[in-house]
Amino acid sequence: MERKVFSLKYRPKTFDEICVQEVVVRTLKNAILNNKIHNAYLFSGPRGTGKTTTARIFAKALNCEKGMTINPCNQCEICKEIDNSNSLDVIEIDGASNRGIDEIRELREKARFNPIKGRFKVYIIDEVHMLTTEAFNALLKILEEPPPYVKFIFATTNPSKVPKTIISRCQRFDFRKATCEEIVSRLKEIAKKEDLILEEDAYYQIAKRADGAIRDAEVILEQVSVFASLPIKSEDVEKLLGVVPERIIFEYFSELKKGDIKEVLKFLVRIEQEGRDPFEFYKSILQSFRTILLVKNGLPKKALGITEEEYQEFNEIGNLFSDQEIYEMMNILINYERLLKYTSFPEIALESLSLSLLKYFRLKKEMGIISLGKIYSVSPKIAGILEDTIIKEVDNIVNIYYQPIKGKLIILQEHEEEIREVLKKILNKEIKIKFIQREMKEEKKISEIFDKTFEGFEELK
Question: Judging by beta carbons within 10 Å of its beta carbon (0-12, 13-18, 19+), is residue 367 exposed, middle or buried?
């Protein structure tokens, strides 16, 4: 028997097997049950989210020998032909390689003939946005008033390039990316059927790299099952895919927090000597800043696909900065993308980027700010009380700057002794506490103190 790759072997064959796209599945089922089939459908969404698979299942549901049904039998000749892509009534067209007006004219001529075996002649055009303007214009008339036995299903990863005149004649369905948890659940199902054993972290490494595409995750799972021996570990996935592990990113942040230029540069030289791709490292830093922002704003770790330890690490970094400052650092990172991609010396670009970020971390260190993350690790209760405050230590005096909210000072004063004990543990010395209402000058953005771009080593010395 011919061996099938995972992405084909476990490709959904019924509506109930489709993962993630509940809204799409429910609407298509109801359309079949109520006999309200539209002339044309537009399936849009990222790669690997099931657009073409759903189109095939819909075509089977319309043409199954057992009648129009939301549960095609997959046993009759028509269902099997559609599954094998050799049905004469379900025509799959690659829009990228059949994009001209002549191909569409040929389609229009053939669409005039009745289906050979099924009830409907279904045209599935993949990557429809690749058609030329002339081809789209040729498609318009038959799309608006097709023969009653002709249905069109268009799939695209870039709906913005599909003319509005086409979209207006279609029912549009937007396919969403799968979450990390949904991908992990799918991978575990396949691993169980294939007798594969993976560590929990390995599943999440694959899910993160798949970026919401279940098909990509299935391909990676098969690849790593060939590469590594059981049980498959997260380190195996990292080696195979060139992934930068979180521990390396946290080590990088640790060097930034120290505020020492030499140590940061030493770290970058070390990861270069380890053979890590500078652009992959850059992408991991940018992704980490996004995670920091999401953690800072209360998204749960399950939604982000990270462990409790990673969540606390990101939370501690996030508590050092305001949302605005994190946005600024993310903008710096984004502005470096093209440079890192196309420069002949990506290592130098990564060093320049790191020194730009170092300004933010270094300023925070010089300001003597104590992060809520550190306080949370000692006392979650006190961290909650000190939320929305800025805590600075200067010469054994801890200034706690609070927002001018009614009752805030009273709450702080009521817990002053507990706050002092927690800060004493963190700083490992006797301290005094002052509560100060925050003024506008305390809200000054770092960008107003330092320029966004790095201008030289001297400025940081």
Answer: middle
In contact, 386 and 372? CB cutoff 8 Å: yes
CATH fit for domain 6-174, picks 3.40.50.1860, 3.40.50.150, 3.40.50.2000, 3.40.50.300: 3.40.50.300
CA 460 remoteness from chain centre: 35
Secondary structure class of 367 (helix, strand, coil): coil
Between the alpha carbon of residue 306 and those of residues 147, 181, 202, the distances in Å are 52, 10, 12
First CA to last CA distance, the chain: 69
* Length of the chain in terms of residues written: 461
pLDDT surpassing 60 at residue 453: no
Burial class (CB in 10 A: 0-12, 13-18, 19+), 258: middle
Residue 432 three-state SS: strand
Query: Which residues are bridge partners to 91 per DSSP?
Result: 123
For residues 358 and 276, the answer to whether their CB atoms sit within 8 Å is no
Q: Is the dihedral of CA 405, 407, 409, 412 positive or negative?
A: negative
Q: Position 286: which residue type?
A: L
Neighbouring C-alpha atoms within 13 Å toward the C-beta of 84: 11
CA–CA dist 286, 280 (Å, integer): 10
User: For 42-56, 360-374, 379-393, which range has the lowest pLDDT when averaged over its residues?
Assistant: 360-374
Q: What is the amino acid identity at position 345?
A: F
Start-end ranges of CATH 1.20.272.10 in the chain?
246-366
Share of the chain above pLDDT 70, in %: 92
